UniProtKB/TrEMBL annotation:
It holds the Pfam family ADH_zinc_N. The keyword Metal-binding applies. One of its GO terms (molecular function) is zinc ion binding. This is Alcohol dehydrogenase. Residues 25-135 form the Alcohol dehydrogenase-like N-terminal domain. Its cofactor is Zn(2+).
């Protein structure tokens, strides 16, 4: 089979690789129908995730058809079309019993990280009963693909961790795919005013279409002045950081109201400054996290009912065989006006 293989920082290649085999009785082998590229994949290629070894197949999102299952798999059948969760869940360890699936002792984020991932023609999924979600007929495959990672991430690590509530003023810093996912998910909780902050005017325009009330470009506008004017000098109730750089984390600290929540979603490759000299008195809460994907069944029902349409995040389409070209587009997202890229087998 063909797979996108990591060969060290800055090096990747679409090449022949031995197809995956069942290893454990709880495994399934899934033939990929659709997959996509995540910002985390770019972090790996930059060398920011040294735990990814050379020879690893990248990718942790996908829609596929189950081709074979281990003898202990009960809920998933050969021929099922499934959503592949970015988080592998054993279901029985101490973390899983607390629904901290991201930290599963025999799973968590392992696809495209510690084991071969989904940017391939086939993939092995450990703990298949807990790590695959059967896709009902009639559900748009591209919408479902967004449930592998980014929509649960935006909801769980941004919106839920940030305790978004009706009537609040919230700010999202970063209008990339995860930031826009958090924007879509935040509307489940009816905030009164949604502010999107980004340096890309095209992405700010998309954010307006997705429901943002105010958009701010910090290269052209003074973020603090505008938010102070909007909030009578109080600041925002929730700031959701969706980039992962020092400048965006500082914006969160500059605009948060007393008693507010800063929910960090972005993947940080460098340390940031925490200004406790000004924050210690403000009674704020800072949260971090890796998605657990516990919200995926609820989000799937919301997609089925038409309450949310995450396929709107898709901007580009490529055959899976052209994944290297797709990476070039995704790596230059601002110039290419790219959000999520769907790769179809």
């Amino acid at each position: 089979m063909k797979a996108l293989v990591y060969h060290g920082a800055g090096k990747k290649r679409w090449e022949e690789k031995a197809p995956p085999q069942l290893v454990e009785p709880t495994d399934a082998i899934v033939r990929i129908v659709k997959t996509t590229i995540c910002g985390t994949d770019l972090h790996i290629l930059k060398g920011d995730v040294p735990t990814v070894g050379q020879g690893r197949t990248l990718g942790h999102e996908g829609i596929g058809i189950v081709e074979s299952i281990g003898e202990s798999v009960r809920n998933i059948k050969v021929g099922d079309k499934v959503i592949i969760s970015c988080i592998t869940v054993c279901g029985s360890c101490s973390y899983c019993k607390r629904q901290l699936y991201a930290h599963c002792k025999d799973g968590g984020w392992i696809l495209g990280h510690k084991i071969d991932g989904t940017q391939a023609e086939k993939v092995r999924i450990p703990h298949a009963d807990n790590s695959l979600h059967r896709l009902p007929g009639g559900v748009d495959e591209e919408a479902a693909l967004m449930l592998s990672d980014i929509l649960p991430t935006g909801l769980e690590i941004g919106v839920i961790n940030g305790r978004v509530q009706p009537g609040q003023t919230i700010a999202l810093i970063g209008a990339g795919p995860v930031g826009l996912s958090a924007l879509l998910a935040s509307q489940f909780y009816s905030p009164a005013h949604i502010i999107m902050i980004d340096t890309d005017d095209n992405r700010l325009s998309v954010a307006r279409q997705f429901g943002a009330n105010t958009v701010i470009n910090p290269t052209k506008q003074n973020v603090v002045e505008i938010i102070n004017k909007l909030t009578d000098g109080i600041g925002v109730d929730v700031a959701i950081e969706c980039v992962g750089i020092p400048a965006t984390f500082k914006i969160c600290q500059d605009i948060i109201a007393a008693g507010g929540f800063i929910a960090n979603v972005g993947v940080h490759g460098k340390s940031v400054d925490l200004h406790l000299e000004s924050l210690w008195i403000k009674n704020i809460t800072i949260t971090t996290g890796l998605v657990n994907t516990s919200s995926t069944p609820m989000l799937l029902k919301s997609v089925q009912s038409g309450k949310i349409a995450p396929e709107k995040l898709v901007t580009h389409h490529y055959p899976l065989s052209e994944i290297e070209a797709a990476y070039e587009v995704f790596g230059n997202a601002a110039q290419e006006k790219a959000l999520k890229i769907v790769l179809s087998a």
